[in-house]
Amino acid sequence: MAESAVANSPFVTEMARHIIAAGGKRFRPLLVFLSSRFGGEVDEDDLLRAAMVMELTHVASLYHDDVMDAADLRRGAPSANRLWGNSVAILVGDFLFARASTTVAELGVEYVHLQAETFSRLVQGQIAETKGAGDGEDPLAHYIQVIADKTGSLIAASARFGGMVSGAPEPTLDALSAFGEEVGLVFQLSDDLIDITSTTTGKTPGTDLREGVPTLPVLMLRAENDPADAELLARIDSDLSSDEALAEVLAALREHPVMGRAKAEVERRAQIAREHLAPLPEGEAKDALLQVCTDLVERTN
After folding, report:
1. What is the reported pTM?
2. What does the pLDDT read at residue 120?
3. What pLDDT score does 201 carry?
């Protein structure tokens, strides 16, 4: 990945490597590698290219996300937009998308098509998130669609890429895609819980809450429209810039039954993801994918 980020200018190379060097879970390459076990013999160079395309596309999208969110940190390091400004950060993201496109072209037309469709969904999801739910639209359903496009699409493509590299049959590819899409939702929704429940993550607990970013527990609380929750919702909608105000709302949410209901929803979606794997052959790769579901439900960071 570091080699793929090399540009004609040392300055561009430094910026393009910034988020790569900060680390990350490399979750999408993991799915590419595991999903490649459901077909035949695999060309290792093609497998590496497929994993690179997915992670480079993800990293490129992070540069754009940080601009949209006016983020100061990414993976514990100062964000690119904070260091070099929004315009430069957007262009670096574009540069990495281009690098991903160069790599995917070496794999074949069907890979290019899938990456382009995935990129389209990423952009549409970002636009929908920025615009917000329309009049008469269910905010929770809108949010689920946003994260399906922004997160689920790329994770689904990662699983499918792995299967494609191994020449897996179409039903297997469809099962892997459906699994990846649902896992993407579980991935993001578990993040929503962590924002409220954890004190050991790389970001300050309640960051989304403070910034007014919709998350599963709060959206469920609004949808339930219980008069007993009116005071808590008013506090959630109030100025949470002070650490004291934020801590009070976090404490109230942590004790609220909605957190249990939100956790149950994450677990429900993880079970749906597991069921998508049912047609696939038993073995270490399938066991590992099933464990991914469990890990996402139980993770604390």
Report:
1. 0.91
2. 95
3. 47
Q: Which two tokens stand for residue 190?
A: 């578990």
Per residue, the 3-state secondary structure of the chain, as one string, reads CCCCCCCCCHHHHHHHCHHHHCCCCCHHHHHHHHHHHHCCCCCHHHHHHHHHHHHHHHHHHHHHHHHHHCCCEECCEECHHHHHCHHHHHHHHHHHHHHHHHHHHCCCHHHHHHHHHHHHHHHHHHHHHHHCCCCCCCHHHHHHHHHHHHHHHHHHHHHHHHHHHCCCCHHHHHHHHHHHHHHHHHHHHHHHHHHHHCCCCCCCCCHHHHHCCCCHHHHHHHHHCCHHHHHHHHHHCCCCCCHHHHHHHHHHHHHCCHHHHHHHHHHHHHHHHHHHCCCCCCCHHHHHHHHHHHHHHHCCC
pLDDT at 192: 94
> Matching CATH topology for 1-134 and 169-301?
yes
- State which fold the 1-134 domain adopts: Farnesyl Diphosphate Synthase (1.10.600)
Fold classified for 169-301: Farnesyl Diphosphate Synthase (1.10.600)
Instruction: State the CB neighbour count (10 A cutoff) for residue 122.
Output: 23
Q: What residue ranges do the domains of the chain occupy?
A: 1-134, 169-301
pLDDT for position 76: 67
Q: Collect the ranges in the chain with pLDDT lower than 50.
A: 201
Tokens representing residue 198 in the block: 């954890």
> Which residues have a Cβ under 8 Å from the Cβ of 230 and sit 6 or more positions away?
none
For 22-77, the pLDDT digits (tens) are 777 899 999 999 999 999 999 999 999 999 999 999 988 888 777 777 767 676 67
**Which residues 6+ apart lie within 8 Å of 116 measured at CB?**
none
